[in-house]
């Protein structure tokens, strides 16, 4: 697959890999409207002009990721290849062009989606999901530091070295897991973690604003995702399976990897 054009809709918070160092999982839509996952990409080590934003169209040479059984999973043919940003879709007309691409197929029953993921002939691992009701958005404490053994291994092989200016600084680990609690179309309550890069970025921004007050920072993140996105916007989730849970046939291998949030449209108004 050469020079595939992809509309980026998902960038997850960076993680550490013992093989590839710090990585970001990227996903989006091809021109035919089908999902594609691109992994690995050492995003923060890419040149500035290669550091794509959400809803950028990018072009790069991709091949099937043979180490990942999920059908949507591809990888760059070379990690060193240049990523070309060739366009961008803005939010004009209440995200109309984005809707045309992203909302072609929308799930609202999570059990149906999980069944597709577990069906080896289908194996769905990326999807758009519309919750019936948002019940809460909250934070749970998590490990505050990356595992020391993984950091030591990466340092041992100089994977963080960048140039004469010094070492590449690995991204800070989020000390919380942020989760949505919601109902699907069958009335079942669900709790899913959101791994969107924007959640982590907002937390660190507000933490700096409040000079290290984590409670206030979390409150601001919750206000954005619950009071704004969930209660005033037409909120959809981008869902993706984690490789480990999908491979182990976990009861629910999906996490939230992005949010799609145009304004709610008022219909049926006569006057």
Could you outline the blueprint of secondary structure elements for this entry?
Layout: E1 4-11, E2 15-17, E3 21-30, E4 35-41, E5 56-60, E6 62-64, E7 73-76, E8 84-88, H1 92-102, E9 106-107, H2 110-118, E10 126-129, E11 133-141, H3 148-156, E12 161-163, E13 166-167, E14 176-183, E15 189-193, H4 197-209, H5 214-232, E16 236-241, H6 243-247, E17 254-260
Parallel strand pairs: 4-7, 9-10
Antiparallel strand pairs: 1-3, 1-5, 2-3, 3-4, 5-8, 6-7, 10-16, 11-14, 12-13, 14-15, 16-17
Core attributes:
271 residues, alpha+beta, OB fold (Dihydrolipoamide Acetyltransferase, E2P), 2 domains, eight-stranded mixed sheet, four-stranded mixed sheet, 6 helices, 24% helix, globular
In short:
The chain is an alpha+beta fold and 271 residues long.
General description of the model:
- The chain has 271 residues and is an alpha+beta fold.
- The chain has two domains: 4-93, OB fold (Dihydrolipoamide Acetyltransferase, E2P), CATH 2.40.50; 94-260.
- The protein contains six helices and 17 strands.
- Helix 4 packs across helix 5.
- The chain starts with a strand and ends in an 11-residue tail after the last strand.
- Residues 157-164 have low confidence and may be disordered.
Number of domains: 2
- Uncertain segments are 157-164
**Given the helix and strand composition, which structural class is it?**
alpha+beta
Radius of gyration: 19 Å
What is the CA–CA distance across the termini? 53 Å
How would a crystallographer describe the biggest sheet?
A: 8 strands, mixed
The topology string of helices and strands comes to EEEEEEEEHEHEEHEEEEHHEHE
Assess the beta-strand content as a share of residues. 25-35%
């Amino acid at each position: 697959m050469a020079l595939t054009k992809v509309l980026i809709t998902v960038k997850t918070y960076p993680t550490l890999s013992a093989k590839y160092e710090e990585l970001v999982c990227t996903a989006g839509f091809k021109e035919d409207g089908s999902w594609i996952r691109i992994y690995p990409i050492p995003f923060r080590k890419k040149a500035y002009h290669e550091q794509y934003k959400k809803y950028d169209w990018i072009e790069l040479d991709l091949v099937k990721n043979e180490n990942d059984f999920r059908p949507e999973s591809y990888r760059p043919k070379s990690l060193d290849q240049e990523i070309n940003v060739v366009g961008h879709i803005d939010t004009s007309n209440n995200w109309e062009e984005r809707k045309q691409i992203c909302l072609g197929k929308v799930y609202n029953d999570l059990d149906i989606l999980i069944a597709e993921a577990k069906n080896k002939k289908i194996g769905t691992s990326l999807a758009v999901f519309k919750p019936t009701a948002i019940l809460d958005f909250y934070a749970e404490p998590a490990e505050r530091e990356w595992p020391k053994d993984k950091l030591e291994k990466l340092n041992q092989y100089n994977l963080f070295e960048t140039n004469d200016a010094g070492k590449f600084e690995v991204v800070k680990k989020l000390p919380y897991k942020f989760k949505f609690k919601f109902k699907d179309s069958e009335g079942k309550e669900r709790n899913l973690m959101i791994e969107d890069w924007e959640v982590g970025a907002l937390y660190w921004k507000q933490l700096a604003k409040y000079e290290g007050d984590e409670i206030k920072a979390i409150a601001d993140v919750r206000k954005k995702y619950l009071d704004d996105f969930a209660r005033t916007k037409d909120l959809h989730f981008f869902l993706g399976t984690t490789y480990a849970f999908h491979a182990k046939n976990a009861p629910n291998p999906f996490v939230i990897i992005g949010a799609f949030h145009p304004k709610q449209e008022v219909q049926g108004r006569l006057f």
